[in-house]
Amino acid sequence: MKTICLISGSSPEFLGGISLYQRNLIEYSKRNNLNFDFIWIYPGDKNRKYKLEGIQCIEVNSFEYPFLKEFNFARKARKIINRTYFDIISTHANWGYCLKGYKKKKNQKIIHTYHGVTYYFYKTHLNRFNLFKKLLILPSLLLSYFIEKPPIKKANKIICVSERVKREISELYGVKNNYTVLRTGVDLNKFSKHESFESRKKLGLEKNKLYGLYVGRGGYFRKGLDRAISISEKIYKKNKNYKLIVVGPDRKKVKRFIEKEFVIYIERGERDLLPLYYSACDVFYFLSRYEGGAPTLVTSEAMASECFIVFSEDSEQEIIEDKKDGLVVKEYGEKEANKILEILSNKKELNIIKKNASNKIKKYDLNSWAKSYFEVLKK
What we know:
By secondary structure, the chain is α/β, with parallel strands linked by helices. It has two domains: 2-182, Rossmann fold, CATH 3.40.50.2000; 196-363, 3-Layer(aba) Sandwich (Rossmann fold). It is 42% helix and 19% strand. The longest helix is centred in the middle third of the chain and has 17 residues, at 131-147. The protein is globular, with a radius of gyration of 21 Å. The chain starts with a strand and ends with a helix.
């Protein structure tokens, strides 16, 4: 049996983001008897070793603050991989900094996955701040550059979750021949079309309301909550039956956005209920200012659930064609609100868009994606 060491920034108990990405790979390996043993290393509040659903987990006590946390965890994770042999080391995002100074062992493979580019992620945030704050945050751009650089030298293979990420990595660190694009897969067994009426009934939603949906645990600015609120305000002025369901963000951070009479706020939405929300709502807002994945996980889930999606142009979802698989917008005002209402009122056009999206995402199912990922490992 070969051992795969997974190194990322969150616990295997968190079913979202990179953690869910890795959990999906592990589940695929188990179902298909691929004969791998997984060790999961991540930063946390304490130092401990334990098992979770057959996964060997190593939690490493790390600093709380950004950058300090990454550097501190990298040093401790490097000690672990230095003293233990793993057939494959699979690092993700800026947690690949642990590879700096690491000497690869004989016959060992290193695979690194870029889920986005931290440098461009921070650059996006510069638009939020005044000149003084911009000057304060500028050093983070330099730090992010160095944090994500080590895997470029160490990894046998670099996986990019979109063409955008591949392009940005090439621009920052130079063009290499070991980059490959592998778009993230979606679990079509969990995410599919459900009857809107039944979904609303189970969620306690009214059958005659018009519902919008925003889902995002963190990074409300990057994920464009303010944009969803802006469009929703215009829709609400035209239709008082409209409600926007906001799932996930920290109440303290988004209080000024969600205190609207048309907003239904759910701080901790259960993941098992997400398929029902996608099916119950009339429109899903994906208005991010920066994303690595194209499609992202929530985009894939909403498409598979045949939910009409409104995308921001700068989220660059790549596989999406405007007015064919969804609606792509550049602005977030009355004009865009009118476009959304126009499509929602045209059932024929609406059903074609939703069906096109559903058919397209079937090419990116979970099994096909995981199979391709493990083929990369074998090579």
